[in-house]
Amino acid sequence: MPSPRVAVIVVAAGSGTRLGAGGPKAFVGIDEHTMLRHALRGVFAAAPAQVVIVAPEGREGQALTEATEAAAERRDLVSVTTGGATRQASVASGLAAVWPAVEIVLVHDAARALTPGSVFDRVVHAIDETGWGIVPVLPVIDTIKRIEGSRITGVVDRAELAAAQTPQGFRRDVLDTSYAIAAQDFTDDAALVAAAGHAIGSVEGDALAFKITTPADLERARSLVAPHPIAPARSSIDRAARGPRVGVGTDVHAFAGEGTLWLAGLEWPGESALAGHSDGDAVAHAIVDALLSAAGLGDIGTHFGTARPEYEGAHASAFLARTAAMLGEAGWAIGNVAVQLQASRPRFAARRAEAEAALSAALGGASVSVSATTTDGLGFVGAGEGIQAFAVALILPA
Ligand code: CTP
Ligand code: MG
Ligand 2 centroid vs 344 CA: distance in angstroms? Predict the structure, then answer.
């Protein structure tokens, strides 16, 4: 790969005092991935650039691991430096690691973890057009008041204001010299470069580039990355003529998966796993199909198929809870569910009560009964190749 003309410095060395998560902010999880990892997703979605991550002292190794994972085939473009006591010192540390051939440097807060790649490309494009330093901005929506103590002393015209985000980008020579002569601490890189006498312009920012500073910001980020809710399902049942309804569901899975067995909402250590897009829990899947069929809401493939990657490897509780919610949205309450499992292994009876409790809990407390049988050695169940489950469900208008 030719040496890139753009570098992105991702500052991730802050302590996250206002978030108060008990560790450096960039390593706090949004979902199964940290803030840093999410921020890097945006960085690597943009055109290829050298990427310098500035990590807190002692966290350099973890930063490099995350960066290598996020970078995939661009991993040769990644390096890590150690941050300083202030954000400005951290940026300076990253700047010292920028390769000689780089002409444009973007500085980005890891705390703006959900920033899309398009913002990086927009900033680089504007620098190429103007030669100025470039800041992504959003219009200020609230009315801004001037205050002295608790007293309002004036209004500030919103039209004159913009909220600054990152990545902020600069010609490399401009950023180098501005940092070399900076004699005080500035609030952001654009202020530091402007103080050195250089022009700064703006491009449109992005609402997703908000900075995660407080616990409320983290909650917002979490809700934004959560699996997209499934659109309310369309029922084939005539709403006017509704009474109790039954539904049926069956499922078959082969013993071919990796890891441990998940069945009837429970983990079964020491038993062979079942194959499947999710955890292969045939008991749970039969229940889902029975409930969906009773409500005329399609079947498990309609809602949880391979088109929904967030259910890959998911356990029964996720499917059952979502199914119960879909029925609720469609105006149905669950009467009861009965399932029969046909399996040579595992020996089910000893954990029946536990399984019924787990399945019932996942369905919001609905009654679930599970019976189990072998097939007298006959068929694929008897041969120990797989298992099958049959479920019926009764639902009632809510
Ligand atoms: N940052 C840094 N080095 C520092 C301070 C901040 O690299 N010495 C980085 C942070 O990791 C963050 C970005 O600068 O990505 C913006 O800073 P801020 O949101 O203030 O993060 P923290 O300083 O970690 O948080 P707080 O101010 O609440 O302690
Ligand atoms: Mg700070």
Answer: 59
